[in-house]
Amino acid sequence: MKLKDWKRTEAVYERMFHPRRIVIVGVSTEGVGFGSGIYMSLRTIGFAGEIFLVNPKGGSFLGADMYKKVEDIPGDIDFAIIAVTARDVPDALEACRKKGAAGAEIMSAGFKESGQPEGIALEKQVREIAGRGIRVIGPNCFGIYCPESGLTFMPAPDLSRKSGPVAFISQSGGMALDYAHEGKSTGVRFSKVVSFGNGADLRETELLRYFGNDPQTRVINMYIEGIENGDEFFAVLKEVSRQKPVVIYKGGLSAAGSRAVTSHTASMGGSRVIWPSILKQVNAVQVGDMPEMIQASLAFSLLPQRVYKNMSVIGGGGALGVAAADMAESSGMEMPQFPHAIADRMMAILPKPGSSAGNPVDVANPFVPPKTIGEVLRIGAEDKRIDFQVLISLLSHFKSMSLATGKPVKEITPYQELAKYTDEAIKETGKPVIVVLPNPRRSLEFMDVVELMELARNAFLGRGIPVFDDLRLALRALEHVNAYYGGRNDE
Amino acid sequence: MKLKDWKRTEAVYERMFHPRRIVIVGVSTEGVGFGSGIYMSLRTIGFAGEIFLVNPKGGSFLGADMYKKVEDIPGDIDFAIIAVTARDVPDALEACRKKGAAGAEIMSAGFKESGQPEGIALEKQVREIAGRGIRVIGPNCFGIYCPESGLTFMPAPDLSRKSGPVAFISQSGGMALDYAHEGKSTGVRFSKVVSFGNGADLRETELLRYFGNDPQTRVINMYIEGIENGDEFFAVLKEVSRQKPVVIYKGGLSAAGSRAVTSHTASMGGSRVIWPSILKQVNAVQVGDMPEMIQASLAFSLLPQRVYKNMSVIGGGGALGVAAADMAESSGMEMPQFPHAIADRMMAILPKPGSSAGNPVDVANPFVPPKTIGEVLRIGAEDKRIDFQVLISLLSHFKSMSLATGKPVKEITPYQELAKYTDEAIKETGKPVIVVLPNPRRSLEFMDVVELMELARNAFLGRGIPVFDDLRLALRALEHVNAYYGGRNDE
User: Fold this and answer.
1) Is pLDDT of B3 > 80?
2) Chain A residue closest to B171 (CA)?
């Protein structure tokens, strides 16, 4: 097999994402450096493979003996994490290559992004070594987080070990780290996250192609500052977008943003004019910031793959219903009025006065029993026009009941039942429900409500029901789903 | 004085917002009703005046004797809270009028919004009684929250007692209640909040005129579903907008939204086409949802009154700087590159490698000492072009240090120092700083970080420095400030 072909084989990626033997080069015993930090993270998260540590002075760290040189490690290694000073990186990388490593992530900074001749020359050396047969992620990156194998970032000992359908390819380490954390509470689960920084070797196009073929990945997320080869990238993007949604956040489209890109990851920016039109052409999903990416990915992950048009809204508080109706219209969706037969059956079980059931359904107060809410969802789904239902639940109001009864809010709030009855309504009717859990209370005396909202969120997410903080965000996510599946069907 | 004139006097409003003697009509001793709920809320929040309770059966509640009739209360009353069944409201209101009450809030529902002939007739009766000399807020509303006097909503025993510059006029009770709570953590402080529901008597136009003249109110917020008299409203809005910013969220601009409005507060909607153009003409500030209103009001409350054009951004993480630059441009602001003299002085005190100081300033890691951050802010302000600075602080990363050291995150995170040095930089340079505190971590094991972020938010807000969760939200708020002061100067 030619070197070029070898580099693209499944086996190489497999050894990088699921390595059995890894080396961390550059583990300082003084203070918390990248090397010692990543070692602690890997141990805490429970990485299952063998970890070898290298420090030129030898010694030991957290009970593990350190090797003075990569060469001293017995046997082969699969993957290397390099965290030495920039000028020592080429030698370390070459040693790992000779040791048989399929790949390496270089966390060290001080390369092309520094703008200095020395850094630029060092990055060229890294690229040359990579060309001789070791795949490089970085430099100036956070590398790989793979929930299945337990490879993680630094410092990130606490990321989720639950795999999911979303892959994230990020030019920024900070974005990768933050999103990996945020995935845990928002419900986005990852197949793999790769922070590739300067991208001296592996970068956007090749990673995109890999995740396009990765059976574990159903949704691809990308944070891109600059691309190396536009033609090739957009060709691959077009191909992959036919198979699965690719959600892209392109940073640096403004003048100042483009300047910031150069000092961040040494990439060339792009034009605010060209990007959106090309992305639209290839049916990629463009988002404007990370929250939008996360919310879109949650919708892509958890909702059946189709276009959503007509919705019903069940919520407490009339103004929320008004807002829902307005937002639906500006998101290109509709809220058809329920026929009397359906509205009357809802009204028969809802508290009076205060309720109304025209769509939106105003349930008058936040304490309506979950079983009734489930029944309302079941009745609403009988309207054949309805594609999906939105449940806006004002659980934070149970705080007042907690204050009145003296019982902890998480004990008296029936979020488990609400998730259960909602789930049953979804399963019986076949119509998805999107849950919105607004929480206007997070000052210090409401920390119990913040915790409650997380528990409630987990209860719904655990049943595969998407949860958003805010209806506007939910509908914006759904707009992306509609644009993608609408665009794909048009082809 | 004619009745019509009397009704508009300061003295009437004064007796409504700062009543010395109030009556709650309709205090049930069984379960938690509106009457008993509001009584408990008033006692807990520490309302300073006298409270009389009325229940046709007499008896006592929480140790307070109840009167069987309003007439039995000795002496005059200033303000009444009416929470009886709709059909008993007219008699109760008339009794309160005869008792000399300047005003009353009617919490009860079952009036015009029910769409039933009986409810419509009852609302007409309420209006007639109001015409004879008692100002009515409601029916179908939550009434008044006034931090200074301690009048509050139900259930809202825990709202802030700190007054501030923002008045909120809301047709929706739920919005009023939620915003009153959210103000507490976001830093928006209220002069008064009025939920007027169906608005049988006092409603948008008259309240707007009152707050336009209220010296305690510098910023007016309105949630409107429908207006009674368009010409009069827009004339008053134009007049008031010359004095102070009026931030308006108009609900029900869509077809379905307009339908929802009718069953919510019995108002007629309006057109999506007409509203924005009229609001722009009169230099009112239009927002699309409550978060946008809250964030705009925070900016109006805490920033010097002017147009903001050129900004600098100091943050940890290169991608955040890139995002900042992009967002600045799309918000009509600019991030001029720092001259070398300034950038070099910043670089001299920032950690290397990893930092850059072109504007955005990337401070390489979240652990740079607050004193250094303060110094960077001071140096950046020397660039004469800069109007304001944005500090993006990734305090959530201290969680890893907390895990490593075993010390509580709120003890090891220097948020107090950061607020102090930021405040000093603002005071010395005269250039405002907007703080962004993103927190991507709120899953259950990060509740300590959620608490930390609240503590940090309070530390900045306590010094009058505005804090946002997200840069996009901060800049959107600033866009409103720019539009308002830009529009006002154009006149």
Assistant:
1) no
2) A319
Residue of chain A minimizing CA distance to B261: A322
Compute how many other C-beta atoms are within 10 angstroms of the C-beta atom of residue A79.
27
Q: Which of A139, A154, A178 is the last residue of a domain?
A: A139
Residue A372 pLDDT greater than 90, yes or no: yes
Q: Whose CA is closest to A115, among A84, A97, A140, A93? A: A140
- The pTM assigned to this predicted structure is 0.90
Between B400 and B310, the more confident residue is: B310
- From A450's Cα to the closest Cα of chain B, the distance in A is 8
A321 and A294 both lie in a single domain: no
Predicted-complex ipTM score: 0.87
- Counting residues of chain A whose pLDDT is more than 70, the rounded percentage is 95
Residue A145 lies in a domain: no
The DSSP secondary-structure symbol of A443 reads S
C-alpha distance from B360 to closest chain A C-alpha (Å) = 7
List the domain range (segments joined by +) for residue B338. 306-490
Domain identity same for B457 and B405: yes
Radius of gyration of chain B, Cα coordinates, nearest whole angstrom: 25
Mutate to test the interface with A, among B113, B310, B322 (most CBs of A within 10 A): B322
Whole-angstrom CA distances from B403 to A30, A91, A174, B269, B415 are 17, 33, 19, 54, 18
Q: How far apart are the first and last CA of chain B?
A: 37
CATH of the domain at A459: 3.40.50.261
Cα angle for residues A203, B470, A390 (degrees, 5° grid): 95
Last residue in a domain, options A256, A277, A302: A302
Q: Do residues B238 and B375 share a domain?
A: no
How many domains does one find in chain A? 3
Q: Is residue B145 part of a domain?
A: no
Residues A298 and A310 in one domain: no
Say what the pLDDT of residue A31 is: 67
Is B95's pLDDT higher than 80?
Answer: yes
Is B59 contained in some domain? Answer: yes
Nearest by CB to residue B185, choosing from A328, A443, A472, is A443
Tell me if B353 and A110 make a contact (CB, 8 A cut-off). yes
**B337·A254 Cβ contact <8 A:** no
Say yes or no: B31 and B62 in one domain. Answer: yes
Per-residue pLDDT, A490: 59
Query: Is B431 part of a structural domain of the chain?
Result: yes
Whether residue B270 has pLDDT greater than 70: no
Question: What is the tens place of the pLDDT at every residue in B128-175?
Answer: 999 999 999 999 999 999 999 999 998 788 899 999 999 999 999 989
Rounded to the nearest 5°, which phi and psi values hold at A397? -70, -15
